[in-house]
Amino acid sequence: MNDRLAQRRADAFALVRRDAAPRYSLVEAHLREQISAGTLRPNDRLPNETDLGVQYGVSRSVIRQALDNLERDGLVVRMRAKGTFITEPDLSLPADLLSSFSQELELHGIMASSRVLAYEILPADPSIAKLLEIDEGTRIPYVERLRLGDGDVLGWDATWIHPSMEQSVAHMDFEHDVLFDSYRAAGRIVHSVERRVRAVTAGKDLAAKLLVKEGASLLEIARLVRDISGVVLDRQVRLYRGDRFSLALDAPGAGPSPDISLNPRLRFDG
Questions:
Q1: Greatest CA span in the chain, whole angstroms?
Q2: What gap in Å lies between CA 225 and CA 235, rounded to an integer?
Q3: CA distances for 18 relative to 11, 22, 53, angstroms
Q4: Does residue 264 sit within a domain?
């Protein structure tokens, strides 16, 4: 055993002996601190429950309760026959930035980028035609992209654009340009963004694109953008990997309940 590991074990043992708080909470707090400080890094494997019990001088049941709490909060993941591993850090999405992928990742110091999977002009099916408030079969621009952070696949989105914007977006670089900039360049002032958030599971096709298992949890954010005259400019459905993202809602005190469905005052990236 090297000196550094021996010191960590001694510190851990001393921790639970000098505090009157429940031992599982002390073990949990110490592991959280190591994860936060980067001493324990994503994909690091923790010692098994028996060894952790020796390290902290507590029983396996105490260790199990501490790990249960860490797993509940997404800080560790248990894999049968493999062990317990530190997870990738969670990327929290503030409700007021739900339509700005680049801003969302910038909050976490991550470089956002996109990869275009498809761009075509296609006839609007009945559901999309209804949302865009156009006739069924009207030909509209459609773009499908993968969303990446520091080169890793984090999300996928599909956007159906109003036919009046076809010429304005025809020469867009959808991997780098901002869709809302094209709207502004065409003289269309974005007035409102209606959003709906729900949890869904990955089908076979999306699972392959997002590099997750079929049936994995995803966070879906569907938006409808209108200009100042009330015309719908686009319908977008964005799916984030559930193992990397969560939604953060801040409702301090006794103020009004958060409303994430409509906020006409914010400016968003496309």
A1: 73
A2: 7
A3: 11, 11, 16
A4: no
Instruction: Give me the sign of the Cα torsion angle 32, 48, 85, 215.
Output: negative
- pLDDT more than 90, % of the chain: 34
Contact 102, 176 (CB under 8 A): no
User: Is the CB of residue 215 less than 8 Å from the CB of residue 202?
Assistant: yes
pLDDT tens profile 107-151:
667 787 889 999 999 999 999 999 999 999 999 999 999 988 888
Does one domain contain both 109 and 225?
yes
Q: Is the dihedral of CA 181, 266, 140, 175 positive or negative?
A: positive
Is the distance from CB of 189 to CB of 173 less than 8 angstroms?
Answer: no
Residue that is last in its domain, among 67, 86, 105 = 86
Amino acid of residue 84: T
Q: How many CB atoms within 10 Å of residue 50?
A: 11
Domain shared by 68 and 101, yes or no? no
Residues facing residue 248 across a β-bridge: 94
Domain with 79, as residue range(s), is 3-86
Tell me the average pLDDT of the chain.
80
- pLDDT at position 97, please? 45
Claim to verify: residue 186 and residue 155 sit in the same structural domain:
yes
Tokens 């959808």 correspond to what residue?
Answer: 174
